[in-house]
Structures
1.
Amino acid sequence: MKRLLKHTILFALVALVAYPVLLCLLGDLGWVRTARTEMANRGFLNSRIKDIRNYHNVDVLFLGSSHCYRTFDTRFYRSQGISCFNLGSSNQTPLQTYVLLKAYLDSINPRFVVFEVHPDIMKNDGIECAVDLLMNTPMTCEATKMAWHTGNMKVINTWLYSLYNQKICHRLERFHEEPTMDDAEYIPGGYVEINTKEFERKRYSRHNLFIRPEQMEELKQCLNLLKEHNIPYMLVEVQDAYQLRSAFKNHEWFENKMKALGPYRYKLLPLVDTVHFCNSNHLFKPGIELFNQDFVVDLKAALAALPPKAENQ
């Protein structure tokens, strides 16, 4: 029995060392399917994080998922005299937003925050965005907590590989992401422009929306962090195509949940699915233009209500 116990402990110790070593070595060869090992992707988070160093003391910080970085065109807001940065990322849930805020809020130092919220994101498990964040942002204590909090092996494996990738190989600091990928182009300031439209007509079954309790708690944590910094905010839901929106049976319930957290904006514009949308839940260029022209009115009103910028900003 003692011998068995000794061998078991020895095997566990060897496995504890061998597992991360093999994960990293095989990850470099692209043979690992239970971790993400590539950095570049159409969400351009790598480019966005490196771009942050150029933006400080902005008027507006945009946060959220692809509905955020594909909708709030920073070029348009700059043309309106509003300095801004878009810190959205693909499928970004409040779990990841909190990590990004802890890392970059003080540096960007916005006067106002636009926090994009969407029913699909609030029910999301956050796995896709977690691995994206781990591979494309510098490792922090908050990122480590987020990774282990998920309890997902793909996320934990990606965390292990990212430690190796960043701390031993130093690839993150050397990596250069091309500004265009397929039909997507990264625009300085965090916006991503999509240049093709392949709208597909779909029939969605009617369903009830729901919110993961952990995402609601993290959303509250994000908002509390903004309050601690005395930064006012607005929760904004970007309009979906009618073919998807009409499938939501209880959207009013979702609206009420968001309204309970603070200022919330959800406005339906007269948009046509096949003209103004890329797909069921992303606007295309004509829709983006109409949305931003309408939204900037409310945004300017919110900014006008704030104290003026301090002289040293």
2.
Amino acid sequence: MSALALSLVADYGVPIVFCVTFLSCLALPVPSSLLMLASGGFAATGDLALSAVLLAAFAGAVMGDNSGYWIARRSKRFGDWLGRNPKRAALRKKGEAYMDKWGGSSVFFSCWLVAPLGPYVNYISGLTRFTWVRFAMWGILGEIVWVGLYVGLGYSFADNIGALSDLLGNISGFVTAALMTFGLGLWLWKVSAKHAKQSN
């Protein structure tokens, strides 16, 4: 995969960085983090301008986030599907309450700390009609961290892109898995507590 990313950056330069970061924020399976590391490495060798790489990655990520948000928000079919069933409607209400309370931090951390969940948080934000201004603001802050971190590390460790990619991928995967396990455990605990209360 690292060879593919290096080849893409070498062949297409800055435009591929924009396209891949944009598509990754729509949940398409493209190696965006690896590509940013590779483009940072090319910037370190002088083959690409660092400012152009940063701008392209940032613009692609922000546009991808907002596209996912508005696709979900304007999706009348999915909104109708959620509203037709009382259980789904109740789930949507819970999602709206959660996003109203924790939406900003969820958007921010999903951009970089748990990046695999980022596109889905974008869609959930749109479906629950989370305030777009708050979504955009937190998303921009999160993408600054994500782009700066990956391009910066690629620039600083240009000779070890493959190993660095594996390390960052493992860290991100571990954090994502840990959060999902915690969330599932919390949900199971609440369900069991509810059932215990009803049986008494």
3.
Amino acid sequence: MKTLYLDCGMGAAGDMLAAALLELLPDRDEFLARLNSLGIPGVSFSCEKSVKCGIQGTHVTVKVNGTEETEELHAHSHEHEHEHDHEHEHEHEHEHEHEHEHEHEHEHEHEHTHEHSHGGHAHRHSSMHDIEHIVGDIQASEKVKADILAVYSLIAEAESRAHGVPVTEIHFHEVGTMDAVADVAAVCLLMERLSPETVVVSPVHVGSGQVRCAHGVLPVPAPATAYILRDVPIYGGEIKSELCTPTGAALLKHFAGRFGDMPVMRTSAIGYGMGKKDFPAANCVRAMIGETDGSSDTVAELCCNLDDMTAEAIGFAEEQFFAAGALEVYTLPAQMKKSRPGILLSVMCREKDRDRMLRLIFRHTTTLGVRENISRRYTLSRTLESAPTEFGEVRKKVSSGYGVKREKYEYEDLARIAREKELSLAEVAARLDSAR
């Protein structure tokens, strides 16, 4: 099973996760060009080598309109009464790292993005609606867009709980600016490219002490980070600094299949994503990808009976479940009470996604109750490979394990070729097979 392990012994931030995952790719320059083609307004990505405690890794830099946020600009933002003291996650670099913990308190009541320029640097205030608009326009798959919005939903919920205000009144600072949107988008795009079957994350070092913000002193981890990491194994230590940011915490929470010790695995690539600040320990996130012998995991199957929904409504609901990370969604005919014909809806998901999937089921269906079955799932190891053909590069899924190996061309590639060449799917597949 293709497994990604993230070692967060020095916490996590968006740029550090992006850099660690980028190091796992053999074609880093090509992927960097892909990041720069996302179309995030004013954003450019670059990376450079960085050494911490004698270990070489990568640091990812994001510039907005040619400017990278600096500690000086960040410090300057504290001199003003407005809540535009945002902080980018290039990280563990600033003494004042949690101004976003007061995101709901800026004075503007309307939901559009606000910019305040100080020393030539624009500080933006963005609502969840603004984030959705930005994400909707980027050049990425629907899966990546859904992942980005899911990460921001975790942050918005945490800020809402921390400050006791509705999610609709939350206005992002550190996490709402274009540079942070870029960090989240980069990690989500990298996860799509790497396509691990399971993600294991170590217990998370959150740091210790206190952090000063525009409205006072907050404990580490700050309230939003602590809320996001509930039910996750975390620990502090002697390092008096904020090591895990809300964005880093949300990315880990969204993608982790489980939190725990490193599994027994045969690693094929190792990446180090570096922060800027120096500590006695190497300030980095370490990512390892490889194969694990275990080819099973635990999934939740959520079921309900429906007899008062149209086929179109059920189809729309299924789309929402898949976009949110469902492993499988299917329906079966069922006999309901009073001999009414109905539908049995089953949604399979990872246990970590159960609560989110339950909310979606109740939102998008008419059911009054959901049943849960916990199952052990056994799967073949799957990879996505690309091969040159007479039609250009065509991707195929390769599955192996339990003594078998199977290959299947990616449907979207076959469909694209069929449309372009005015052929049937069977004809395209036959010509590809004959050329092998």
